[in-house]
């Protein structure tokens, strides 16, 4: 395959890109879900549930702060993802697979053979957290410890969010958990390598996640957007996760 033809696989048509509409627009500020509200005073839970309900109905997306995941764990998790993707190609090659039955696999563009005309400029690794987490020896050494550590924290946060979603629906706190919504958990860890023609491609194209809900660990780099009232809204990098 010629290099020019290979690169064309990543080219996206200019008309596919839309500029965000929220620059300087204060009406496009997404409410923050501050879990310290209920940690300090459980009587505030009803008010927090109401915020979750309204934000989920209007945005379908919200930042979460004071979630009790130590900042050191978040930083180490992001570093672990980076360290894996920046290993030598030969070291990573043993983990490359498109077999979704594996607990840990490294890949690029899971929908590479789909119908879309262009693919994303992105590499990823996929890790099954629950119910059948891989054995430690199946995880690359460079990110093994943090993936196992992060699993415990993110599962706890996920359960709490399921409780809030259940209550926002007017149901008992354990409803979504009891019907099986907490029985599957996986991490999809993306890496966006340096691109020689960044104006012609994109790291992640428009999509809707196909899981029940996603907990996103954002880094310091711009680019995340969500769709709101038929317009794309920029989500600033969330470099803080705790407030006083």
Written overview of the protein:
This is Non-haem dioxygenase N-terminal domain-containing protein. Belongs to the iron/ascorbate-dependent oxidoreductase family. InterPro entries: DIOX_N, IPNS-like_FE2OG_OXY, IPNS-like_sf. This protein has one domain: Sandwich (Jelly Rolls), CATH 2.60.120. Helix content is 32%, strand content 13%. The strands form 3 sheets. The chain has a 3-stranded antiparallel sheet with strand order 3-4-5. A two-stranded parallel sheet has the order 1-2. Strands 6-7 form a two-stranded antiparallel sheet. Strand 6 and strand 7 form a beta hairpin. The longest helix has 28 residues. The termini are far apart.
Write a compact overview of the structure shown.
Residues 188-238 form the Isopenicillin N synthase-like Fe(2+) 2OG dioxygenase domain. Belongs to the iron/ascorbate-dependent oxidoreductase family. The chain is of the alpha+beta class and 244 residues long.
- Main sheet: strands, sense, barrel: 3 strands, antiparallel
What is the annotated CATH architecture? Sandwich
Strand content: 5-15%
Shape: globular
The overall pLDDT average reads 84
Question: Which blocks of ≥5 consecutive residues have pLDDT under 50?
Answer: 1-6, 240-244
The tally of strands reads 7
Which homologous superfamily in CATH is the superfamily? Answer: B-lactam Antibiotic, Isopenicillin N Synthase, Chain
Give the strand line-up of the largest sheet.
3-4-5
Radius of gyration: 19 Å
What is the number of domains? 1
Q: At the first level of CATH, what is the class?
A: Mainly Beta
Q: Number of helical runs?
A: 7
Distance between the first and last residues' Cα: 56 Å
